[in-house]
Amino acid sequence: MLNGIHKLNLDAKGRMAIPSCYRERLMDVCAGKLVITLDTEKKVVIFPHNEWQKVEAQLVNLSMSKAAVRIKRLYLGHATDCDMDKNGRINIPPYLREVSGLTKQIALVGMSNKFEVWDDISWEQEMADDDDLDLSPELQLLSI
After folding, report:
1. Using 50, 70 and 90 to split pLDDT, how confident is the model at 131?
2. What is the helix (H) or strand (E) element at residue 24, kind and residue range?
3. Count of CB atoms within 10 A of residue 52's CB?
4. Of 15, 16, 94, 118, which has fewest CB within 10 angstroms of its CB?
């Protein structure tokens, strides 16, 4: 559903425009309601609300082990509901921008059920580092 890489700019208020190719789809599947949070790499991720509900259900059912509580704090504690405005924009909260190192230029990366939001320089570095992938046996079996 959410695929591709889009280079975007954050405005002075921390808003980004969801690319037009996704807007209608997001209105259809979740009425433009999204959830923004951090992942385990402290990267901003954006879920359509219906996809977030699946993630949230899994998180709620985790044990209360120290690691599980830390994951819950990260995902649930930083989760912020947001709605696309009439221009397809969403606001990334200041704290999430700061923690994830987002500046004006960003890369929005579709990951099927969510978007990752990268600072553009970090994204370019990540792509350059992909030359050194150490593929697990599971990944080596992929026939793509």
Report:
1. low
2. helix 20-30
3. 23
4. 94
